[in-house]
Amino acid sequence: MPSIKISSKGVRKVYNPGADNEVLAIEDASIDIREGEFVALLGPSGCGKSTFLFMVGGFEEPTGGALTLNGAPIAGPGANRGIVFQEYVLFPWQRVTANIAYGLRIAGVPKAEQERRVAELIAMIGLQGFEDAYPESLSGGMKQRVAIARALAYDPEILLMDEPFGALDAQTRGRMIADLIRIHQATHKTTLFVTHSVEEAILLSDRVALFSARPSRIKEIFEIDMPHERSVTDDRFVAYEKAILESLDEEVSKTASFQ
Amino acid sequence: MTAAAAKPPNPAADILRGNRWTPVFAILAFGLLWEVVVRLGGINPLLMPPPSAVLLRLFEMLGPGEGATPDFLMVRHIAWTLFALLAGFLAAALVSSAIGLLMGINRTVYAWLNPIISVFMVIPNIAFVPVLILWLGLGMHTVIVVVVTGSCFPIIYTAAAGVQNVPKRMIWAAQTAGATRRQILTTVLLGATMPYLIAGHKLALGRAWRAVIAGEIFASTKYGVGFMIFDARTFLDSEAMFAGLVVVGLIGVSLERLLFGFIEKRTVERWGVATAKNL
């Protein structure tokens, strides 16, 4: 049994506590994430799934509960995590190679080692021939590949992904999902993947953590017990999709009735 | 493509509609109109010399001198002006970038400097000149200070705005990769602010050019294109005055085009950041 990488026990997040515009974003997020596991954080919009991801990233602090990484409370961002955003957030003034090498460069890794590692990652994400391009000239899918490579370059323990395929067209997304599965199988990074797509969650994850509507809890955790490559037409896939969608629908209708 | 190829090429119509050659023809048309109006309108050439006379005078002043006119007089004036411009602009660039970046990084610095700078910024630069002459006397050093006061504000504000507009997630990405505060400053903030800095410097160079000419009119004693224009008035040498204006216009336009066209092609255009081009 792999060890627990991230442990979240009764984690709460309140914005502007005590003020008029106080918002209880997360009431109770409890989940243990094992080393090497791929966990999708799924839920209606505004449910705090990204907030949870940013707390694991160390950018936001929990208001209550215990959130630990390797058994220690998370004290801020650090190089044991890598992050990928929906909007890519590459450094536009740097070429593809320099973007990918960023973490290695600031850590003072020797040039030759940087180059070796970057070449390896370029091959992994299939961007040979685009090493010297600026992000501006790349398509959305290519930019996101570079962002993933940048996050993996310094070999973090955990990969945090915030709706990384949300801005991509359906075809590109399909290819990216297949590639991410391949990358995960090759690197075994513990991965937290925020998404609002049930299909994405089932195709990718070992487990799907379903967030309820605000004030949110982790309502249900689905263990996806299917080998890769998974197919959306597989009976088991359809059964998981039905179960998750039913649970999600309850939440979406709750949010709707609030408005 | 095929439809266009079928039509006979008509360069005159293209120029009329506006293509890369239109600016040349527009300037030529303006000159021609000026020439015709002066010659046929019976306008006193002492007040308004025709462009042909102005250009002749300009070439005369660019070349070896005759009689009272020293050799290469206009070249000396231009050299003097460009030197004052560059000295003032470089000083402003260094100091203002530092102040602006600091204002962008530190909220307290911004809160205290912003009101003061806001007041200074609405004062027309030329209004500082009498005070500067009182303090510093006449001469190139005063003109250089006029250039600094004339060009520092756009740089300060765009640098501050640049830092403030760095996407939060770009900093998060760097922090997650293990960047320290200092590394974020040198590897992220500077790069992300660069389009703003370029836009600010472009704007500032235009201001600096206006400032150096205006400053010379009041504070220069011997050289400078601005001084020359003002000085020629004393001798009713309107051809030289207009020649000076032509020089000011031509150099002003080329400074921006040559210098910043080059820089923008290698930076913001490659990065796909539009900020600097829009200002």
Uncertain parts of chain A: none
Structural class of chain B comes to: mainly alpha
Main CATH class of the largest domain in chain A = Alpha Beta
Order of helices and strands of chain B: HHHHHHHHHHHHHH
* Helix share, percent of chain B: over 70%
Q: What about the largest sheet of chain B?
A: none
Q: Assign a percent range to the helix content of chain A.
A: 25-40%
Percent of residues in β-strands of chain B: under 5%
Q: Could you tell me the CATH topology label of the largest domain in chain A.
A: Rossmann fold
CATH superfamily of the largest domain in chain A: P-loop containing nucleotide triphosphate hydrolases
Q: H/E element string of chain A?
A: EEEHEEEHHHHEHEHEEH
SS field, number of helical segments of chain B: 14
Q: Per CATH, which architecture of the largest domain in chain A?
A: 3-Layer(aba) Sandwich
Query: In terms of structural class, how would the helical and strand content of chain A be classed?
Result: alpha/beta
How big a fraction of the residues of chain A is strand? 25-35%
* CA-CA gap between termini of chain A: 44 Å
Which regions of chain B are unreliable across 5 or more consecutive residues at pLDDT < 50? 275-279
Whole-number mean pLDDT of chain B: 91
Give the tally of β-strands of chain A: 10
Shape of chain A: globular
Structural topology:
The complex is a heterodimer of chains A (259) and B (279).
Chain A (H helix, E strand, L loop, with lengths): L3 E12 L7 E12 L3 E5 L6 H9 L6 E6 L2 E2 L7 E5 L10 H5 L1 H5 L4 H15 L14 H14 L4 E5 L7 H18 L2 E6 L2 H7 L2 E5 L4 E8 L11 H24 L1
Parallel strand pairs in A: 2-10, 3-8, 3-9, 6-7, 7-8
Antiparallel strand pairs in A: 1-2, 1-4, 4-5, 9-10
Helix pairs in contact in A: 4-5, 7-8
Chain B lengths: L1 H5 L4 H7 L4 H19 L10 H12 L10 H33 L1 H16 L6 H8 L3 H25 L3 H9 L4 H39 L5 H10 L3 H29 L1 H4 L3 H4 L1
Helix pairs in contact in B: 4-12, 5-6, 5-8, 5-10, 5-11, 7-8, 8-10, 9-10, 10-11, 10-12, 11-12
